[in-house]
């Protein structure tokens, strides 16, 4: 079947044409068809752009935020290796990594607050894209006891530091000294700078090794939680429900749709509103189209020999 049949083209040309006294009708018909074409084109382009924007935004956010997170109610997760093994045994779970997360102050040439996340690099690469997003240096240089740190690009710029420089990390935990109570502090060496393309993460996050974070923040053997990656992020809600049922009652499982529900709901609402507005434009253009009615179409069919009266 041909996409453009000669009959349809001929009838279309007849509708755009008119007798000498009806040039205004031809003009209205032509403008109406152009309006419909323009409206449909705008609808397709805008919806495609919105879909691409949502996909890109979701991939960048989930490059730092896991598909699901397991945490304990009001306390640290102690036996995290067993929890990681239990999570990996669940269907659709392809990665699991422990983490420690605390706020701290960083001092270089300037001072800035940041969220410090302690990770195990080989496990963290299974659940996030921060290793692949490290532009300078290497994420794998985070070795236990080395006190290395990887900063976001905007955070490094705010501190006035680069790879190879030293930065002082000041934790909110206090320690007693002969001169009084002072914050827990440690000098770290910057061995990498990452850039995921979202200012929130590039400006506010820094990574250290899990054991270094545990010593600095005095967390002992416990971790803040376990981050999970799934083979299909749209199954995160179901996997979170199954894990919440399988694990003891002291654990809580949250998926990415709960952690960023307001943000993605706003994007979805914006897409819907844009679709409605552009659909109304197409509808108005369609109503303006000059039609000759069923009798005119019937006469065209007879003229071209498609139908015999």
What does this 3D model show about the protein?
This protein is of the alpha+beta class. The protein has 11 helices and 10 strands. It has helices spanning 6-16, 23-62, 80-88, 121-127, 153-159, 199-204, 210-217, 236-246, 256-259, 261-288, 293-303, and strands spanning 68-72, 93-107, 111-119, 134-137, 148-152, 166-177, 180-194, 205-209, 225-230, 251-255. A 6-stranded mixed β-barrel has the order 2-3-8-5-7-6, surrounded by 4 helices. The protein starts with 5 loop residues before the first helix and ends in a 6-residue tail after the last helix.
Question: Quick summary of this structure?
Answer:
With 309 residues, the chain is of the alpha+beta class. The protein is 46% helix and 26% strand. The protein has 2 domains: 6-59 and 264-303, no CATH class; 66-259, no CATH class.
Explain the layout of strands and helices.
Blueprint: H1 6-16, H2 23-62, E1 68-72, H3 80-88, E2 93-107, E3 111-119, H4 121-127, E4 134-137, E5 148-152, H5 153-159, E6 166-177, E7 180-194, H6 199-204, E8 205-209, H7 210-217, E9 225-230, H8 236-246, E10 251-255, H9 256-259, H10 261-288, H11 293-303
Parallel strand pairs: 3-8, 5-7
Antiparallel strand pairs: 1-9, 1-10, 2-3, 2-6, 2-9, 4-7, 5-8, 6-7
Helix pairs in contact: 2-10
């Amino acid at each position: 079947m041909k996409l453009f049949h000669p009959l349809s083209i001929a009838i279309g040309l007849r509708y755009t044409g008119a007798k000498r006294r009806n040039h205004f009708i031809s003009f209205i018909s032509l403008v109406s068809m152009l309006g419909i074409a323009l409206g449909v084109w705008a609808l397709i382009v805008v919806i495609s752009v919105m879909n691409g924007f949502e996909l890109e935004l979701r991939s960048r956010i989930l490059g730092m935020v896991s598909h699901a997170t397991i945490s304990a109610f009001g306390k640290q997760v102690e036996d995290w290796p067993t929890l990681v093994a239990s999570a990996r045994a669940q269907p659709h779970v392809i990665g699991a990594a422990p983490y420690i997360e605390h706020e701290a102050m960083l001092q270089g040439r300037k001072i800035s607050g940041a969220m410090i996340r302690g990770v195990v690099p080989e496990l963290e690469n299974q659940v996030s894209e921060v290793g692949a997003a490290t532009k300078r240096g290497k994420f794998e240089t985070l070795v236990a006891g080395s006190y290395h740190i990887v900063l976001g690009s905007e955070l490094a710029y705010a501190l006035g530091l680069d790879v190879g420089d030293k930065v002082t990390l000041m934790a909110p935990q206090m320690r007693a000294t002969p001169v009084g109570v002072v914050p827990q502090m440690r000098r770290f060496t910057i061995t990498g700078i990452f850039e995921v393309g979202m200012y929130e993460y590039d400006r506010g996050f820094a990574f250290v090794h899990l054991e270094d974070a545990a010593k600095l923040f005095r967390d002992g053997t416990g971790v803040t939680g376990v981050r999970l990656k799934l083979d299909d992020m749209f199954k995160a809600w179901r996997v979170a429900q199954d894990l919440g049922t399988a694990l003891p009652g002291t654990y809580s499982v949250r998926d990415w749709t709960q952690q960023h529900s307001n943000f993605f709901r706003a994007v979805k609402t914006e897409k819907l509103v844009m679709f409605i507005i552009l659909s109304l434009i197409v509808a108005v253009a369609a109503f303006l189209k000059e039609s000759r009615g069923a009798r005119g179409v019937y006469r065209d069919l007879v003229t071209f020999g498609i139908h015999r009266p």
